[in-house]
Amino acid sequence: MADWDDLKVFLAVARGESLSRAGRVLKLDAATVGRRVARLEEAFGARLFTRSPQGYVLTDEGARLVAPAEAIEAQMARAAEALAGPAEGISGQVRIGAPDGAANYLLPQVVARIVAANPGLEVQIVALPRVFSLTRREADMVIAVSKPEQGRVIATKITDYRLSLAASDAYLGSAPPLTSLADLPAHRVIGYIPDMIFDRELDYLADLGVEQPPVASNSVSVQLNLIRQGAGVGVVHDFALPAAPGVRRVLTRDFGLTRAFHLIRHADDRRVPRIERFAEVLVAGLRAEVARLERQSQGE
After folding, report:
1. Cross-referenced Gene3D superfamilies, in alphabetical order (predicted)?
2. Residues in contact with 244: Cβ distance below 8 Å, sequence separation at least 6, in sequence order
3. Over the stretch 59-114, which tens digit does the pLDDT of each residue have?
4. Domain count across the chain
5. Do 54 and 198 fall within a single domain?
6. Assign residue 33 a region: left if phi > 0, alpha if psi is -120 to 50, beta otherwise?
7. How do residues 205-243 score in pLDDT, each as one tens digit?
8. The domain spanning residue 77 has which CATH number?
9. Any domain includes 182
10. Pick the residue with more confidence: 257 or 207?
């Protein structure tokens, strides 16, 4: 019968799809990881991975083992926390995946307050404009703009947030008049690269009839910096505006969007106290920070 150490190696290889990546996570050399995988396959009498020059891919038998192995992983985490006894704060490591708008303009200050109150806590923020895989454990929790429609996950709505058209004072001072949406075709519009929009909720310019913005980036942070440099007009998170002096909202009576952030976690983490406590304080902190920054962006 397989032991937990071998199952831990199995999960690392399944998530990293290579012996070397799994080894870096486990702090083992690739040869040792390979031997452990072979031992596990022998114990189960089944081939768990297909080997190729591109890496290790789960076989049907291996895919069926993932859920039971993750259930054991969650049980081991709960056992470790139980043995550690009650703690004053949150400790251990938590990795958050987030779109770069939330990662740049919300998470730094929220996480700074959380870690200041919990010295034993280590937080990793993975800021990438894409969808994260909880199944592959790319993160312990993910901030997303769309609720997942399937999968064994826990989805908690964090808060609504607002987006507005915005431009720099320098741009507006030299550009044609912008008094209504009818004036927009005379202006350069900044937005997402259309074929790199990873979530339909991010297709902000569809409501404006703009299919191909002349200046574009897959990053909202880059878009905001382009707006700051006077490259044109774009859709901006209201909560990001306090970080962009010289940029202001325009056409506020004609255009505005509301979206929502959701915190997504693996269902097996529901009973992991460390993850539960961190999720609670993170959601509360993000709600308060979005409200504070939106008030500030509106001059309140």
Report:
1. 3.40.190.290, Winged helix-like DNA-binding domain superfamily/Winged helix DNA-binding domain (1.10.10.10)
2. 166, 224, 227, 228, 236
3. 998 888 887 887 777 677 666 555 454 445 788 889 899 998 999 999 999 999 99
4. 2
5. no
6. alpha
7. 887 888 889 999 999 999 999 999 999 999 999 999 999
8. 1.10.10.10
9. yes
10. 257
